[in-house]
Amino acid sequence: MDGRSVIRVANMNTLKRGMVIDVNLDPAKGSETGKIRPCVIVTNDTYNARVPIIQVVPLTAWSLKKAGIITNVEIVPSTNNGLTKKSVADCLQTRPIDHRARLVKVRGELEDGIMGKIDDALKIVFDLFCFETAPRASPR
Fold first, then answer.
1. Residue 7 to residue 26: CA distance in whole angstroms
2. What is the CATH number of the domain that holds 104?
3. pTM as predicted
């Protein structure tokens, strides 16, 4: 089976937030994550269904150093997520991809708890914290 056949088979699945997919991230430049590797889809399902550009978080092999970074999320392999080794989601390396050109295969799906941790890490990366403010005084 050539690479194009694999891509066609993978595209037959509906892409959903939280799915683990293999993505060809080459060519990479500078310190960008490259090669074919698992990634987690983090765009919402409305965008995933309507546009070919999706946002993904690349996964990389677990190490003690990587596990200590606040914007990395540890992921243990399971039959549900399709991973074969302990990994970290590197939320600092989040990037858009055109799934028509870069998707290789669908592996599985992450548990809600792990997606919640990825959401928290993305809030740190993109400075998306919501702070409650005191109610405004009414004009006099």
1. 15
2. 2.30.30.110
3. 0.83
Strands 36-41 and 87-90: unpaired
State the chain's mean pLDDT as an integer: 88
Confirm if 89 and 73 have CB atoms less than 8 A apart. Answer: yes
Q: Is 74 a member of any domain? A: yes
Which of 34, 36, 5, 11 lies closest to 100, judged by CA?
A: 11
Domains in the chain: how many in total? Answer: 1
Whole-number Å distance between alpha carbons of 115 and 121: 10
Which tens digit of pLDDT belongs to each residue from 95-131?
Answer: 999 999 999 999 999 999 999 999 999 999 999 976 6
Cβ contact 60:88 at 8 Å = yes
